[in-house]
Write a structure and sequence with these properties.
The protein is an all-alpha fold. The chain has one domain. The protein is 59% helix and 0% strand. The chain is built from four helices and no strands. Helix 2 packs parallel to helix 4. The two termini are 19 Å apart. 17% of the residues are buried.
C-alpha cells in the first residue's frame, strides 16, 4: 500500500499496468522514463531478501506482478 502511494505521489503509478496498456497518447520515450522511475521507486522500498527474488525483472509491470505472486495473500 505504501509503495502504491509513493508511485501515485510521484505520478508514476501508470507503469504498474505494464507496457501493453501504455496510453496511446504517450510517447515511447516518455513511457520508458515513467517505467524506469517507477521501478526505481519500488526497488528502493524493498529489502535485500525481497530484491533478490525480483532482481531480473526488466519492467515495472513485470516487477509488480512478480511481487504480487510472491507476497500477496488471497482473501476469501
Amino acid at each position: 500500500m505504501r509503495v502504491t502511494a509513493l508511485l501515485v505521489k510521484e505520478c508514476t503509478h501508470k507503469a504498474l499496468v505494464g507496457v501493453e496498456k501504455k496510453p496511446s497518447k504517450m510517447e515511447d520515450d516518455e513511457w520508458m522514463d515513467l517505467d524506469v522511475r517507477a521501478k526505481a521507486a519500488i526497488i528502493l522500498c524493498l529489502s535485500d531478501e525481497v530484491l533478490y527474488n525480483v532482481i531480473n525483472e526488466k519492467t515495472t509491470g513485470g516487477l509488480w506482478c512478480k511481487l504480487e505472486r510472491f507476497y500477496m495473500t488471497e482473501f476469501s
